[in-house]
Structures are given as structure tokens and as C-alpha cells.
Hints:
Number of helices: 17
CATH class of the largest domain: Alpha Beta
CATH architecture of the largest domain: 3-Layer(aba) Sandwich
Helix content: 25-40%
Number of strands: 20
Structural class: alpha/beta
Distance between the termini: 60 Å
Strand content: 15-25%
Number of domains: 3
Oligomer: single chain
Radius of gyration: 22 Å
Amino acid sequence: MKVVILGGGESGVGAAILAKTKGLEVFLSDKGEIKENYKKVLVENGIEFEEKNHDEERILAADWVIKSPGVPKKAEMVQKIKAKGIRLSSEIEFGAEFTNAKIIAITGSNGKTTTTSLIYHILKNDNLNVGLGGNIGKSFAMQVAQENFDYYVLEVSSFQLDDIQNFRPYISLLLNLSPDHLDQYNYNYEEYALAKFRIAENQENDNYFIYNKDDEMSQKLLQELDLRVKQIPFSMKEKLEEGGFTEEEKIVVKLHDEFSMKIEDLSLMGTHNVANSLAASIASKLLNISNESIRNSLMTFQAVEHRLEGVAEINGVKFINDSKATNVNATYYALESMKTPTVWIVGGTDKGNDYTEIEDLVKRKVKAIVCLGLDNSKIIEFFKDKKDIIVDTSSMEEAVKTAKSLAEKGDTVLLSPCCASFDLFNNYEHRGQLFKEEVLKNN
Length: 443
């Protein structure tokens, strides 16, 4: 069987290694430049590859094409592969074909990385033999090739779900839905939401689908879709007969028995993380992890880097790095969890943001806005009549210096940009790293 891999990054190289170990004929093609560390792996494993080019004839002679999530589905080569009827899969589909491990797959518009990391932490803490992959950490396919895990906890994006055929997790989670990446889904929110729901389309009644009962779009689509999977809800608003909910400052999970713990004992801050902790607890109970072990893990989990990450407290001012908040909905959760007057650093590459969603929170919680980006006119225009202090900056150094001068003892400085980072930074990690460096400078 001839397998062609499109994209020479983490997932592409992992898929190439897996194909090679399974004795398949493999060729990797990347339209851009492949990083040196990945080239080295390909050379060492005797895998043929090309960069800065797509050999169309060779690609279209494949039996199976594995597409990295970074390759746009509207790309010309992808359209040609589809037109020819060649099987086109994502790396998670490819990896899942070669493992019998139980897969716990997590998707949603916000909270995926945190919840995936949290579930992995709970399983690892309970001494289960578990791998972490998907949209996070080491390539899933590479782990299938080189490890022998009994469980995989996978963060899964809509782009990866676009290219599945048989992918069937043991437990799937859909945390929430809000408009994101709409440029890839014809600016149609429902089309994007349906892509997320594909996580459950191959599941059977011996599998589990954990979903958010408070999410309107999820509720709407659940009524329209014919899912065979066992469905388990969680809610922050109502008490449930089965599933997860909050009651009297506690999280409660009711399945074959009951698990509960005080919200104040959770290591993660913010209402949205109570919901994430509920979802993770349900998954853990389904895997027969003891209440004591779940409680211990929920108390000891460290927040994901760049996601409501406490950086320091300097002269009574808290600094929080939420660089991963690249859309308005993510920033909504961050602002909602602020307990003190907040100096808010916002801005970057706008993805068609509508700031009305956070208008009320900004009025109530934010004392000053520091804009960080090459073009902050949209943010300034929207908030100019709502906040007295708005400062325009175009470097991280300037933004942090300004925020420090505006913050007083008892305040919080929050970097939660609402926007992509590509105007000034390589990615959100780079943006968050520079924020932390500037905060800790000269202390």
C-alpha cells in the first residue's frame, strides 16, 4: 500500500514513522520548509520526502493520504486528492487504525488543552499506562509506533475530525461550542459545530459521549443527530439524575455511585474550569478510577502553560498569563474568573471578533485596557466610550511597563488577548513567554 503524508511537522512525521513500522510504502511531501529536527528523523528512518514542493503525480498515485491539520482543506492539492477518490485521513484516524488502546478524545471550542491535560493527569496519577497526544504534546501516531500504552488521552480539533472515517473513541467529550475558525467552515457556525460532533459519529452503545447540557448549539444538534452512543451530560445550571452538576459550592458526579468535592478545593481557577473538572471527573468515573484518586488529582493539577497561568505577585499585584485565549469566548472565561480590579492586555490579529460578548464583564471588572498589537483601532473604537483608560502599545515590553504603571496593590494584570498572535509574535506560546519575561524583569 502506498501512503503519502502531507505536512512535515509533528503529526506528519509521526504518521510517516508509523507507516514505515507497519511496512507500508511511504512518501512525505511538504509545500513549505521542513524543520531540521524533523528532517533528521526522516533521514534516520529512511523515509523519502520532499519540501517546498508537491510532486502531484506521485501524491495522486497514493492509496491513502494522511493530511496534517495545518494543511487547509481548501488547498488545491487536497481538492485533487478528493476528486480522485483517494482515502484522505487525519493523523488521529491513521494512528487509531493501528492500536487497540482505549481512546479518550476531547474536543470543544475552549478548554480542550486544559481538560485533556487534566484527564491525563488523573489517569497517570492512578498508575494507568497512558499516553497524551492529538493536538497536544508528542504525535499520537508516533506513540502508536513506538510505545505500548493501554490508554490514550487525545485533544482533537475540528480540522482533525474533518478527515476521519472510522475513528471511534471509547469516551468522547464535547466541552462547549462557540464560533471559531469560521473562515474554514464557509462562515457557517452550524457547519463548524457539526465538524466537532463527528467525534461521536462512529461510537456505539458500548461507548460514552460526555456533553455540555448548558450549551445551546450542542442541545440543538443532539436532537437532530442520530447518535448510537451512550450520552452523559454535565451542567452548571441544573441538578441531573445522571451525569455531572454543581450543588452548594460542590461538584457532583452521579453514575453507578456518587463523587463530590468542594469547588474551593479544585486547583484550577474560574467557572469554566469547574465545568472542565466536571467533564474530566465523569470520564474518570467511567474508567473506574476511585473517588479518592480523582479528588487527589483535581487538587494537585497544575494549570496548562499560557492558560490562566499565574506568573507572579509583585508589590501586591497579580500577573496572569492567558496568552492561549485567541478568541473572545476564551477571554470571556478569563475575565469572568477575575476577583480583583483588572488591567487587561488585549489585541493581536483579529479573527472577526465581536466584543459585545464581553462588554458587560469589561465594564464591571476592568479598570484599564492596554492594547497590544500593530492595529488596535477596532478594540479602541469599541471600548472608547466604555472605559476611561485605554492605552495603545505595539510591543510586549511597552504593554507590560504600561500595565505595571496602571496597576495598584490588590489589582490583577491579565494578558488575555482575544486575538491571534501573528502580527507581533511567532505564536501564542511566544507571546506568553515574552509576557512572563517582561513581568519578571527588574524585580
